[in-house]
Design brief:
alpha+beta, Beta-Lactamase, Rossmann fold, 50% helix, elongated
Length: 218
């Protein structure tokens, strides 16, 4: 039987690698040094709402239609090193993404382009939040003393923070709170960070318990 030549083996390996990258559940975009889209896999097509045949050769900034992702890429493209972040998207659908933008370099260290890797963690976060809320509510059912009056919320919280805390106690996600209050998800996270510090809360479960015990829920 004839053995494949080195060129044939190389082509076979390239084909296997390409198929593996295209089948990843994580989105992958390859950009040229000038920021033009050179290649993207199927997961990236789905997460960005585009078709590779229609956007190949376009500037990545023109391909991105979600303002949050565009803002992340604007900062990442200006960074001298690799950039990582979390992005809440609303187009083509709502999602929570973890994004990593890395430089691609030759063996001599020359910059060839950029690789943007992004993973949809929406379901993972929803499960984590729901589990935390369920465990907290069960704990309160077991330990709650119906004869005890709720404590007054600690002074120092703004009206906005109190309202957000109440929504947290009702089991709403950050995205749902943002929609209800007409603010961005990042603004919700910022308010939560501040009120966590004011109330010395270490987790969302503690925030839920605090909101329920203090009568902040609807």
């Amino acid at each position: 039987m004839r053995q494949p030549t080195s060129l044939e083996r190389s082509c076979l390996i390239d084909c296997m690698v390409g198929s593996a990258l295209d089948g990843m559940c994580v989105g992958l975009v390859i950009l040229t040094e000038s920021g033009k889209l050179s290649w993207l896999n199927r997961a990236a097509e789905d997460l960005l709402g585009v078709k590779r045949g229609e956007v190949t050769g376009e500037l990545f900034t023109h391909v991105l239609r979600d303002p949050q992702f565009s803002a992340f890429w604007h900062e990442a493209s200006q960074a001298e090193g690799n950039a990582m972040g979390e992005v809440t998207t609303h187009w083509p659908r709502h999602g929570e993404l973890k994004v990593n933008a890395s430089y691609c370099r030759s063996s001599d260290g020359e910059v060839l382009g950029r690789a943007v890797l992004f993973c949809d963690v929406t379901a993972e976060r929803t499960v984590a939040v729901n589990l935390s809320e369920e465990l907290t509510r069960r704990f309160l059912e077991l330990t709650h003393d119906s004869t005890s009056a709720p404590r007054a919320p600690q002074e120092g919280l703004t009206a906005q923070e109190l309202r957000i805390l109440g929504h947290v106690g009702e089991g709403m996600s950050n995205a749902e709170i943002g929609e209800a209050m007409f603010i961005s998800t990042s603004t919700v996270r910022s308010h939560l960070k501040h009120l966590y510090a004011k109330l010395d809360l270490g987790s969302r479960a503690e925030a839920i318990r605090y909101a329920i015990q203090n009568g902040l829920t609807g």
